[in-house]
Design a protein that fits this description.
CATH topology: Translation Initiation Factor IF3
Helix content: 25-40%
Strand content: 15-25%
Shape: globular
Number of strands: 4
Domain UPF0033: 33-98
Protein name: Preprotein translocase subunit TatB
Radius of gyration: 12 Å
Number of domains: 1
Pfam families: TusA
CATH superfamily: TusA-like domain
InterPro entries: TusA-like, TusA-like_sf
Distance between the termini: 28 Å
Number of helices: 3
CATH class: Alpha Beta
CATH architecture: 2-Layer Sandwich
Strand order of the largest sheet: 1-2-4-3
Length: 99
């Protein structure tokens, strides 16, 4: 199997398989565990982290708070490209690639 790339992350959360998501997490520059956290904390932390990353770096936020899957990408705006992955057990990963 070839190494997963950013392009393997798809717009629909249920289309990214677990193996690819795990490989992308392994290559992430930074991972934030936001499980149990609610808005606006995840947005604030994402914005702070993105500001410190280099272009092309990937921040991954792991969350169980569904509104974060929409609010975090909106919060980082044009500073990062966002994609979302959904597990089968109610966990989400928000992949943010610094522009």
């Amino acid at each position: 199997m070839s190494q997963p790339s950013w392009d393997d992350v798809v717009e629909m959360p249920d289309e990214l398989d677990d193996e690819t998501a795990e490989a992308l997490v392994d290559d992430a520059t930074e991972i934030q565990d936001m499980t149990g956290e609610v808005c606006p904390y995840p947005q604030v932390e994402a914005k702070k982290s993105i500001a410190g990353l280099s272009p092309g770096d990937v921040l991954v936020q792991e969350t169980d708070h569904v509104p974060s899957t929409e609010n975090v990408p909106k919060a980082v705006g044009d500073d990062a490209t966002a994609k979302v992955w959904k597990s089968g057990d109610g966990r989400y990963r928000i992949f943010l690639r610094k522009e």
